[in-house]
Amino acid sequence: MVDISTSSEWHEECGVFGAYSHSEDVSLMTYLGLYALQHRGQESAGIAITDGAWMDVSRGMGLVNEVFRHQLPHMDNQYIAIGHVRYSTTGSSLLANTQPLMVNYAGGKISLAHNGNLTNASQIRRKMEEQGTIFQTSIDTEVFVNLIAKSKETTIENKIIESLKQIKGAYCLTIMTENKLIGARDPHGFRPLCIGKSDNSWVLSSESCALAVAGVKYVRDVEPGELVVIDENGLKSYKFAKVEKKAACIFEYIYFARPDSVIDGQSVHDARFMMGRILSKESGFKGDIVISVPDSGTTAATGFAYESKIPFIEGLIKNRYIGRTFIQPTQKKRDTAVKLKLSPIVSAIKGKDVIMVDDSIVRGTTSGKIVRMLRKAGAKSIKMCVSSPPIGYPCYYGIDTSVRKELIAATKTVDEIREYIGADALHFLSLDGLQESIKNANSDDMCYACFNNYYPVKMSQNSPVGADKYMFEHLKKK
User: Fold this and answer.
1) β-pair partners for 113
2) If DSSP codes are grouped into helix, strand and coil, which group holds residue 26?
3) R_g of the chain, CA atoms, integer Å
4) What is the pLDDT of residues 2-41, one digit of tens each?
5) Backbone phi, then psi, for 103, in 5-degree steps?
6) How far apart are CA 12 and CA 370, in angstroms?
7) Does the chain have fewer CB atoms within 10 Å around its N or its C terminus?
């Protein structure tokens, strides 16, 4: 999929990372980990560190290497760090909303980084504001920080557990106190979080792809409903909630995660490759070449080519030096952004019957631009395969598609979508085919709400602004 900042297509979530070590540079480990997680968010980045007595946070707008271009945060004897890369799913893209958040409260100092969306945050926040609590951001993460600060429990573990029991929705958290690194995953396991270890270091990461660069080996995933606490005594595990239904986000396997990650025992690469193979079987499409919309459609495209025996060709070149901060206030500039981001290889496409593979169609605008680009390059025909079912329902758990009317599959049939994007043929992977592609994890433990309208955690009907990304900013205006 073309990942342009205001392209009206699918956007990532966030990435969290944490490091604990008395022998390694935890700030550098966290920087490297965030660099490996950059695909999960490009709006802002931040790192918080502690030496056991003091705590400091450095945050900024932009990519990891831009925010920390001149130097990394540093303290003598620093031994714990947490980091965050952000794509905003609640609250505007502002410096005030960057993470990790750091606060001082009666129990000491705490920093927190969050991936996901809390579905009951507006109710909790409204109640806190009525009681006099002051909020300095418009993100749901600050609700959780205040719950911890207000807790009457005596230990940080119990303060966090008490707070976790009050919130609903999707979250993975990395939390840092003066002497502990803490991770938590919601009871449904919507978002991924894994544990890495070396002889002298512990790491928490949104994805396993960030472990090797930080110099640690994968140990296991944090379980849904589990809190892990890392300190000088090692790792302790606490179960803070009963897991009634696991619901890991299926789009981690379709699009969000890096192909070299393993989530809950399932290789992301293997899942996408199998999606492509099943697409070939289901669609029966024939053509001269198979191409992908880079980079997220590439693994599925190679699977399609493998199964169909049709050669995979690099038909579209992605300019990787165009960041997501490109502003497109007019339609003309939005069209120009696609041309800057992707370029067709005319010699590979001209006169060919092309099969193009992408991971999803959200609103359809970008897909239509790419089809027109291929036709202009001389493609004889364009058949499009999508390695996910039609997205007909919004996501409330940390993905920026919370308004159903913006989703093309909510109002159009497959043939109407084909006509809208201008393709000669269009096939979406079936839900059965998608589930079949997840070989090494239990496909019943996934969330398919954006496809089938079954939501493991309901949005509160009492929220005045529903699932609005800018809910807290609208509340302030009211």
Assistant:
1) 174
2) helix
3) 22
4) 333 333 344 446 999 999 999 999 999 999 999 999 999 9
5) -135, 155
6) 21
7) C
DSSP state of 312: B
Q: Which tens digits make up the pLDDT trace of 257-292? A: 999 999 999 999 999 999 999 999 999 999 999 999
Classify residue 477 by burial, with Cβ atoms within 10 Å: 0-12, 13-18, 19+. Answer: exposed
Tokens of 52: 């056991």
Q: Under the phi-then-psi rule, with left for phi > 0, alpha for psi from -120 to 50, and beta for the rest, what region is 453?
A: left
- Phi, psi dihedrals of residue 183, rounded to the nearest 5°: -130, 150
337: amino acid identity, one letter: A
Q: Strand, coil or helix: what is 333?
A: helix
Of 369, 294, 367, the C-alpha closest to 336 is: 369
Amino acid letter, 360? S
Distance between CA 9 and CA 367 in Å, rounded?
9
Tokens of 246: 């696991």
- Buried residues in 135-156 as b, exposed as e (16+ CB within 10 A): bebbbbbbbbbbbbbebeeeeb
In 289-394 the beta strands, taken as DSSP E runs, fall at 289-292, 316-318, 342-344, 353-358, 381-386
CA angle 87, 91, 95 (to 5 degrees): 75
Phi, psi of 159 (to 5 degrees): -60, -45
Dist. CA 188–CA 243, nearest whole Å = 7
Amino acid identity for residue 308 in this structure: S
